[in-house]
Amino acid sequence: MRKSADFFMFQVMLILCVTWGLQQIAIKLVVGDIATIVQASLRSGIAAFLVAIVLVIKGGWQPSWQGTSKAGMVVGLLFASEFLFIALGLQYTSASHMAVFLYTAPIFSALGLNFFVASERLKPLQWLGITVCFIGVLVAFGGSISFSEMNTTILLGDLFGLLAGIAWGATTVVVRSTKLSEAPASLTLFYQLFIAFISLLLIALVTGQFATFNLTPMSVSSLLFQGVIVSFVSYLVWFWLLRQYLANNLAVFSFMTPMFGVTFGVLILGEKLTINFIIGAILILLGILLVSGEAALTRFIKGLN
Residue 145, SS3? Predict the structure, then answer.
């Protein structure tokens, strides 16, 4: 039986959200030395190696491997798609925009779980949140439109960010609705990382992404941060949380990530934000809050009455 949110979960999610908020910044900082798709592949490879060590030590390969391979392949391909879209999107849009559009994932996971997991059917307030979120997406896309012309480059990058959010949301649905929900978190993570490493490496090789590959102190530090801290430690913790707590309860706290991502993008990368994008981002976060925090909000409203 998965638990509702508690203070321990809040503390862990706060640390995770700060870490994830720095993820796009780390990619953008070294894009001149290592192509984004190459970064996505190598970070996955580093983390996959570390997770494999954990599995060997804990003996997590058997019997958990049995009966999960098909679902594992699906989540691996979805994970690879997510980071392919992130890598492509960051070539065209800002880290701030990517942080917001990527973290529409809880909306898409909530929609999927509504149909596949009986315990997570959407309530009326959550449907309202989904509506608000999608209005926010439309408004935020308007942030790519200047008074004189549409900046199709930024718009394309934002679209890739939204596709990454859809892929991430679909990953959560597959994990929760298949035997992976009871498998060790390390095995689920290994499926994702290993398949992402192989598939993204092939894409990088075929498309000539290794033409620029400079190992500088900054680029090595970025890869280690992405591979060890983000892809290994934080994702392992995330999947452990998914097994302990209700997915929608977790998602209510993940809305802090885009706030950190936007803040870091402005402070570290000096990115500029349009009014349209800011309003859209607020609506997206409000929608996520309504979807993910429905139970807490309902209790609060009843308490007022």
Answer: strand
- Tell me the DSSP string of 151-216: -HHHHHHHHHHHHHHHHHHHHHHHHHHSGGGTS-HHHHHHHHHHHHHHHHHHHHHHTTGGGSB---
SS3 34: strand
Burial track 263-285 (b if 16+ CB lie within 10 A, e otherwise) = ebbeeeeebebbebbbebbbbbb
Structure tokens at 208: 């000539």
CA distance 252 to 268: 26
262: its two tokens: 């936007």
Q: Rounded to two decimals, what is the model's pTM?
A: 0.83
Distance CA 65, CA 297 (A): 39
Name residue 202's amino acid: L
Kindly state the tokens that stand for 270: 């000096």
Q: Count of residues for the chain? A: 305
What pLDDT digit, counting tens, does each position of 246-275 carry? 766 776 677 778 888 888 998 899 988 888
